[in-house]
Design brief:
heterodimer, A: about 100 residues, 3 helices, B: about 725 residues, alpha+beta, 2 domains, four-stranded antiparallel sheet, 28 helices
Chain lengths: ~100, ~725
């Protein structure tokens, strides 16, 4: 399959993730969408890595996965903490920082 | 022995500075010792300098002390230079001598005042400023003294600022003087423009030489000298309380009495007369200006003498008397009789300061009240004060052998004899002379009225005050007696030549070099004037005795009932204050109010200050809508911003330079370094929308078929993103 097909998939994945982050109200789903964006980025890295015959992209993909895991751990911890204090997991209702 | 003249004003100024800075930490005794010492030492130095240099002073331009160049700008160089000649030396002696006496008097008069140090600091400051005014040999230096004494006058009139009336009297004096000072400044400017200098000796020499720069016509057919003299006289009118700016002086009586004696009678108010005498040569060039000076002086002398007839406040009577006597002096200098005017200034300093000190002594005894309707019979309780008042009163009335007699007659005789006005204005002299004789009658009358109502008859004060009556302490009586002696004897320096062949008119001889030769008055005229003015003085005193001897008598009551309107007009000071209030103060206040409402309230408060707050407030309201606390909206904005950034970054950068070289009809465009590689360029040289050259080259040539005005357009495209930028230039082909 040609390179641009992978890139198109990556792009589509990224836009789906972005839409999820911007539009969904449930914190858990937003976090999952962030993971989708990560996945899109990783896919692009791998695609270019293969297309250019350079191993750096592969190495970087591992970094992204490790980072995503750490992000998920911190993110979920925050979600749990917010849920404990505010009894909600909806982003609509977590809006104390406003002007 | 050699003194520098700068010591004379410096001593009181240093005293003032010390007292202002550290006076509060000293005892009363230390304060008045410092103050009296400062001004007393100034007097001693001045006297020593005066008598040491006396031969030089009266025969030449005197001695000068150049402190240094004050400022120089373009053609204008102003030196801080002091000069003592016969005129300024005499003034110096009067100022420092009377100043010293009044400092001593004040130690008694102000003994119970809380602001002791402040009072003496101001008095010292005044003496320093006045000495600077007198000694200053350049108009700007004189002006500094002029403003300095004005400031001290303001400070001392409002010395008891706790009462609004006193504070506003101070403001009135200051503001009225501002009007005059504007004239003084304009006069200085005119003189500088015409003569190119502000040094008094140079100006006087220029004027004596009749230089065309001063006699050239300026406005309305009058020469520069006339206008300069007139504007300077405007300053004198303010400072010396003449019509129309005299209204501040009666109100200035709100200050402590020693201040009234020193500043508002003996010294500061005579500064105008001094200035006119100093620049006498300039005035002599413009007879019309002299006529105005004399006319204003005579009118003021008459008007103030009439108003003084109807006043019931001790110090108010003396204040109008001062205005009237200043009018006499202006007639003196206005008829070219400068020595006569200065002679009257000299004697007046003694007898008027003496009268004011008597007023202070009486008011001290009367528990601060100056209402003469509540006095009477004080001669028995205050013998010293009464004697001093008698001597000074007779002097001002113009009774022979007292000093005022000689000085007043010198002015009146000079007015009849003068020839300075020339043929067209020759009537001015006799007219103002006659006016002065009428004013002299009024003077004798109001002064005797004051004497009879205060010192003779039965006491009309309440019992409490009556028991409290006492003669003042020795430090108050002492200076009064000295001034009384001065009032008695000061006339010897100016005896009419008709009386004393060998010692006649000493003042005139002394001042001859400073202000020009003394006026020639025939012996017959001198005798006639003396006889006539003696008769007038005695008539005035006699008339006052008929009206007020031993209290208000029947003829006085009958006069009031026969002429009720006249009496109330005189008592109301001809309502000049009210007229000024309606004509000047009210319109000005209205204008200020209008400006306040339009400029301050609307323009500044509403539009400028309020406008900005509204703007900021609205911006804040609008911007807070973005700040809703919803993370997802922030993210959306972030995403949009990022997209915009990517778009902008993706455009090809602006080339570092665009060089367009034209040679004849060929043009070459070169784009500078720094642009990204692998860009695509398009050049449209003649502005027809078609690209004439295109490709990867960053430069292109073109030959124009004909000269003209062309629009050059360069397109730069980045093929990776298909983004482009366009640069436009206009070029001229000859």
């Amino acid at each position: 399959m040609p390179t641009y097909a992978y890139i198109l998939v990556s792009l589509a994945l990224f836009f789906v993730g972005t839409a999820g982050v911007l539009l969904r109200r449930n914190v858990l789903i937003v976090l999952m969408s962030v993971e989708l964006q990560f996945a899109a980025g990783t896919l692009a890295l791998l695609t270019f890595s293969r297309a250019l015959g350079d191993q750096k992209g592969h190495v970087f993909a591992f970094f992204v996965m490790a980072l995503a895991a750490a992000e998920a751990a911190v993110g979920l911890a925050i979600v749990v903490s917010v849920f404990r204090t505010r009894r909600t997991a909806s982003l609509d209702e977590v809006n104390a920082l406003k002007g | 022995m050699f003194y520098q003249l700068r010591i004379i004003p410096l001593l009181p100024l240093l005293g003032a500075a010390y007292l202002i800075l550290f006076g509060r930490h000293h005892s009363r005794r230390a304060v008045h010792r410092i103050a009296c010492l400062a001004v007393g030492a100034a007097f001693l130095v001045a006297a020593d300098a005066f008598f040491f240099w006396f031969p030089i002073l009266v025969q030449s331009n005197g001695v000068t002390d150049l402190v240094g160049t004050w400022f120089a700008s373009g053609d204008l160089q102003v030196d801080l230079v002091l000069r003592m000649d016969a005129l300024s030396g005499l003034m110096c002696l009067v100022v420092s001598f009377v100043g010293t006496l009044i400092h001593i008097y004040s130690t008694g008069y102000m003994a119970h005042d809380e602001d002791y140090a402040r009072f003496f600091a101001y008095l010292n400051l005044f003496c320093g400023a006045m000495l600077l005014l007198v000694l200053g040999d350049s108009l700007p230096v004189m002006f500094i003294g002029w403003e300095g004494v004005g400031l001290c006058s303001y400070l001392l009139i409002g010395f008891w600022y706790g009462e609004t009336a006193n504070a506003s009297a101070g403001k009135k004096a200051f503001i009225t003087n501002r009007v005059g000072d504007l004239g003084f400044l304009i006069g200085m400017f005119l003189l500088f423009r015409a003569a190119g200098t502000l040094d008094i000796p140079l100006l006087v020499d220029t004027a004596r030489a009749g230089s065309p720069s001063l006699t050239a016509t300026l406005w309305w057919g009058q020469p520069v000298a006339f206008w300069a003299a007139l504007f300077l006289f405007m300053g004198a009118v303010g400072k010396s309380a003449q019509i129309p700016l005299y209204v501040w002086l009666p109100d200035a009586m709100a200050g402590p009495t020693p201040v009234s004696a020193l500043i508002h009678a003996a010294t500061m108010v005579t500064a105008g007369v001094y200035m006119v005498a100093r620049l006498g040569a300039l005035y002599l060039l413009a007879p019309a200006a002299l006529a105005i000076v004399a006319g204003v002086g005579a009118l003021t002398a008459l008007l103030a003498a009439v108003i003084a007839l109807g006043q019931n406040d001790f110090k108010k009577v003396l204040a109008y008397s001062t205005i009237s006597q200043l009018g006499f002096m202006f007639v003196g200098v206005g008829t070219g009789n400068f020595a006569g005017g200065i002679f009257h200034l000299f004697t007046h300093a003694f007898f008027k300061a003496g009268l004011f000190l008597c007023a202070g002594s009486v008011m001290h005894a009367m528990a601060g009240s100056g209402d003469i309707t509540r006095m009477g019979g004080l001669a028995r309780k205050l013998p010293w004060t009464t004697w001093v008042f008698r001597v000074c009163g007779l002097a001002i009335c113009g009774v022979p052998i007292f000093s005022g007699f000689f000085s007043k007659d010198a002015i009146v005789a000079g007015a009849f004899a003068t020839a300075v006005f020339g043929p067209r204005l020759h009537w001015v002299g006799p007219t103002v002379g006659a006016g002065l004789l009428a004013a002299a009658l009024g003077t004798a009358f109001y002064m005797s009225r004051l004497y009879y109502l205060v010192f003779t008859g039965e006491c009309r004060a309440d019992l409490n005050t009556r028991e409290h009556l006492h003669e003042s302490s020795v430090e108050m009586v002492g200076p009064m007696v000295v001034l009384g002696l001065g009032a008695l004897l000061a006339g010897v320096v100016g005896l009419p030549p008709a009386v004393s062949r060998s010692h006649g008119d000493l003042v005139g001889h002394w001042l001859a070099d400073a202000v020009g030769p003394a006026l020639e008055v025939s012996r017959g005229l001198q005798w006639r004037v003396m006889a006539f003015s003696t008769a007038i003085a005695l008539a005035g005193i006699g008339l006052a005795w008929r009206f007020f001897g031993g209290g208000v008598r029947e003829p006085a009551r009958r006069f009031v009932t026969t002429w009720p309107h006249l009496t109330s007009a005189v008592r109301g000071k001809f309502f000049v204050d009210e007229i000024y209030h309606a004509l000047v103060v009210c319109p000005l206040r209205g204008l200020s109010r209008a400006f306040f409402l339009v400029v301050d309230r609307i323009l500044i408060d509403k539009l400028l200050v309020g406008g900005w707050t509204v703007l900021v407030d609205t911006a804040g309201r609008l911007l807070r809508m973005l700040q809703v606390g919803d993370v997802q909206r922030y993210l959306a904005i972030f995403a949009i911003g990022l997209a915009a950034l990517v778009y902008v970054m993706a455009r090809p950068a602006e080339p570092s330079e665009v060089k367009v070289r034209i040679e004849g009809r060929s043009a070459r465009v070169e784009l500078g370094e720094g642009v990204a590689e692998k860009l695509d360029y398009g050049f449209d040289f003649d502005g027809d929308g078609q690209e004439d050259r295109s490709g990867a080259a960053a430069s292109a040539n073109w030959l124009y078929p004909q000269p003209g005005h062309y629009q050059l357009r360069v397109r730069i495209t980045d093929p990776r993103w298909n983004t482009s930028r366009t640069i436009e230039r206009t070029i001229d082909i000859q």
